[in-house]
Structures are given as structure tokens and as C-alpha cells.
Design goal:
By secondary structure, the protein is α/β, with parallel strands linked by helices. It has 15 helices and 17 strands. It is 38% helix and 18% strand. The strands form three sheets. Strands 4-3-2-5-1-6-7-8 form an eight-stranded mixed sheet, with helices on both faces. A six-stranded mixed sheet has the order 12-13-17-14-15-16, sandwiched between helices. Helix 3 crosses helix 10, helix 4 packs across helix 5 and helix 11 packs parallel to helix 12. It is globular and about 60 Å long. The mean pLDDT is 93.
Length: 424
């Protein structure tokens, strides 16, 4: 089987199952003799920042000499991006082999009256196959959606991390922060430490209550514990001054203020997991972190960010408002997102120009509806393109000294990355 055929077959698998239960997936794990129990899993859930926290922590652990596995979602261009060992993307032939093994497993399961697997459940089982027998010290696993009913919750972690929680996937997770937090907190396991941030938005008390019921110790950060010391073009220096850990002179390669919070969560997680880890290892790990699609510079003055909800966009606006630069926006979003709320926030930025387009993903919001939202909120010139490639080409052509930010969805980031070589 070719890699392209594999991607096509997996892409046709339904995203969601008919029943809100993990019993079917657990039965498949039984058929596999539970490979997840042989991995020392660090489990990461939340609304925003999951991938970045995973990447920061993975870099720290690798710097400390540990062999790592990393399972994240979504991918930007290729499915294989979701599976990494020592941060190297797994070889395409190995990913294909894992898919063939899952197909064989599903046939066996169906013969025993088990139900089909969902898209994410398949990827989760592929990750277990790819990581098993690879002599991995730590396996970092990011949830796909929520926590309580996410496939990854069937792992038995040594540490859990809950990142920033805000409104997203409300039709599935709930229409209040407290309901969403309860779903995310479903990853908490008995006697397993939980690392989180107290955002003062109603999520933290829910997390603490769930942790108490599971006798899980909570280690939290507040925004007041973090101080940004210096910003340069693509670096941020910061310090942590919490009751658990105090350190200065930390640096990340990023323009985005929100990455300070994500880096700090990873540092605290590393300290709880490995109490004797040195500050030098932590600093090198943070500085060595590379993660695509999060205020990522793809060329000088050209950035992509997968912010796709109001919480993430709020952090982007905060970052831009603290810098004396001019910006142009290229924006596309999925139709099931609160793009009106996102645009309310984006309208606070005095964009030189705004390019509105539509991602190819079937859930892409229409250009006309997005334009109408912008039209009532900003005086910036608006330009409409139905194809991302055309919008990106126009934005680059019209750009002078100002920076260009491509924002609104990780699907948009993926499309920009697929066409970027033609224009840059």
C-alpha cells in the first residue's frame, strides 16, 4: 500500500462514533494485550496550548537524555506528523504498516461483534503500535477532543497536564467554562499529579474538585507567577516565581506572549516529574523547542498561527498590541467556530489590510459571511478570495514593510504550508 492510499482510506473514516462510550475501543485494546500499559504516558488536555506544551516538555525531556514518543493532533500537512520518536516524524512506511495492522485488528474485532473505530481511535491505536517496542522512556499524548471520552484517556499516565481552557467545541463539551473544564478534567487519574494553570475563569475550581475526588495532587501556576523580562524580534525572555519553583533567564524562540504560559507549564511539569532536573537542562530544552503553526515565522515578516477560538485569538491580539509594528491579516475559519467573537477581538487591531478566504476543509465558513462580520467592526480594507492560494499570493504581492499574519484555523496553516514554496 502507498502512503497516499493510506491517507485516503483514513480520511474516509467517520470522525465520531454513535455511542458516547470507550468500551468498544477498550475491547480492541484487550485484543492487543493493552500496549498502552507498557508506556510511561504524560497526558495533556485543554483548549489552547496543548501541542505547544507537549513540544516544550518533549524538548526538555530529550535534552535531559530521555528517549521520547509524541502523539499530537491535528496534523498540518501529513498524517505522519502526529507520530514522532525523539521528535523525528515516524517514517511513512512505518505509518503505513501501523495502519495495515489496525485494519487487520478491526477485521478481527468485527468478527467478534465489536463495532467500527472512529478516525481518532484509529490514529491512537496506530500510535501505540508505532511506539511499542521502541525503548521509549516517556510518551507524551495529546487529547484529540475533550478528555473524559477521548481515546487517549484509556492510558495510565504518570503525569497529567491541563492547559488553558476556553470556549470551543461547545456543542460537544458544553456551553459554560465549568462544563468544558469538567470534560477536560476527565483525564485526571487516581493519585496522579496534575499540572495546570489558574486562569480565574471558573475552570480551576472544577479541576481541583475532580483532583480531590481522585486524590490527585494539583500543582498550579498563576499568570502573576510569570514575568516577561524582554522581547526581541523572535525571542522572549521570562521568569517563573511560583511557590513550587523559581527561575529566571528562561528564553523561548517565539513572538507570541501566550507561549510563555505554555513553556512555564512544561517547566513545572518537568520539575514535578524529575525533581533534580537542572535549570540548565530546562533552559536548553525550552530554547530548542520547535513547533509549527503557532506564531510561526515561515519567511521574514510572514507568520502563521492556528488560533481558532476566542481564547486563542485574545492571546494573539494581546501579543500584537504590545509591539510597535504594522500588520496585515489573512483570515479563514471553520463555520462551526465562534468567528463573530473572534472577529470582535481581531477588530481591535488596526490592520493595514484584511484578506478573507475559505479553507478547503468542508467546514470552512463562507467568505461572504465572514466579510459581513468584519465590515461592521473595522475600517481596514477588506479583500475576498475563495481560494487560500490566491489570497496568500495577493497578500504577499500587496505587502510592503508590514508583517503578514495568516490566522483562524490549523487547516489554514496546513494549506498555507502546502502552497508557500510557490511564492517564498
Amino acid at each position: 500500500m502507498t502512503y497516499e492510499t493510506m491517507e485516503k482510506e483514513i480520511g474516509e473514516i467517520p470522525k465520531f462514533g454513535a455511542k458516547a462510550s470507550l468500551s468498544n475501543l477498550n475491547a480492541y485494546l484487550e485484543l492487543m494485550n493493552h500496549p498502552e500499559r507498557n508506556l510511561r504516558v504524560i497526558h495533556v488536555a485543554g483548549t489552547n496550548g496543548k501541542g505547544s506544551v507537549c513540544a516544550f516538555l518533549e524538548s526538555i525531556l530529550r535534552e535531559a537524555g530521555y528517549r521520547t514518543a509524541l502523539f499530537t493532533s491535528p496534523h498540518l500537512v501529513k498524517i505522519s506528523e502526529r507520530f514522532r520518536i525523539n521528535f523525528e516524524i515516524c517514517r511513512e512506511e512505518d505509518v503505513v504498516a501501523a495502519w495495515l495492522a489496525v485494519k487487520k485488528l478491526v477485521k478481527k474485532g468485527m468478527d467478534q461483534n465489536l463495532g467500527p473505530l472512529t478516525f481518532f481511535e484509529v490514529l491512537f491505536l496506530m500510535a501505540l503500535i508505532l511506539f511499542s517496542g521502541k525503548d521509549v522512556d516517556y510518551c507524551i499524548m495529546e487529547t484529540g477532543l475533550g478528555g473524559r471520552l477521548d481515546a487517549t484517556v484509556l492510558c495510565e499516565p504518570v503525569l497529567c497536564i491541563l492547559t488553558s481552557i476556553s470556549f470551543d467545541h461547545m456543542a460537544i463539551l458544553g456551553d459554560t467554562i465549568e462544563k468544558i473544564a469538567l470534560e477536560k478534567a476527565g483525564i485526571i487519574k487516581k493519585n496522579t499529579p496534575i499540572i495546570t494553570i489558574d486562569e480565574k475563569n471558573g475552570a480551576f475550581p472544577v479541576i481541583c474538585r475532580e483532583a480531590k475526588e481522585n486524590n490527585a495532587p494539583v500543582f498550579s501556576l498563576n499568570y502573576e507567577d510569570l514575568s516577561i523580562l524582554k522581547k526581541s524580534e523572535n525571542y522572549i525572555d521570562f521568569s517563573i516565581n511560583s511557590r513550587y519553583y523559581k527561575v529566571s533567564g528562561l528564553r523561548i524562540k517565539s513572538r507570541a506572549d501566550y507561549q510563555v504560559e505554555n513553556a512555564a507549564l512544561a517547566v513545572l511539569a518537568a520539575k514535578i516529574l524529575l525533581p533534580h532536573i537542572s535549570d540548565g537542562i530546562l533552559k536548553k530544552g525550552l530554547l530548542g523547542m520547535i513547533w509549527e503553526g503557532r506564531m510561526e515565522a515561515i519567511a521574514k515578516g510572514v507568520y502563521v498561527d492556528g488560533a481558532h477560538n476566542t481564547g486563542a485569538v485574545r492571546q494573539i491580539v494581546k501579543t500584537l498590541s504590545g509591539r510597535e509594528e504594522e500588520w496585515t491579516l489573512l483570515f479563514a475559519v471553520c463555520e462551526d467556530k465562534d468567528y463573530s467573537g473572534m472577529i470582535d477581538l481581531l477588530a481591535q487591531v488596526p490592520w493595514k489590510r484584511i484578506y478573507i478566504t475559505r479553507i478547503e476543509e468542508t467546514r470552512g465558513a463562507s467568505v461572504e459571511e465572514v466579510r459581513q462580520c468584519f465590515a461592521g467592526r473595522t475600517d481596514s480594507p477588506l479583500f475576498e478570495y475563495n481560494i487560500v492560494d490566491a489570497a496568500f499570493q495577493a497578500a504577499l504581492h500587496d505587502r510592503k514593510e508590514e508583517n503578514l499574519l495568516c490566522l483562524g484555523s490549523l487547516y489554514l496553516v496546513g494549506e498555507i504550508k502546502r502552497c508557500v514554496k510557490k511564492y517564498l
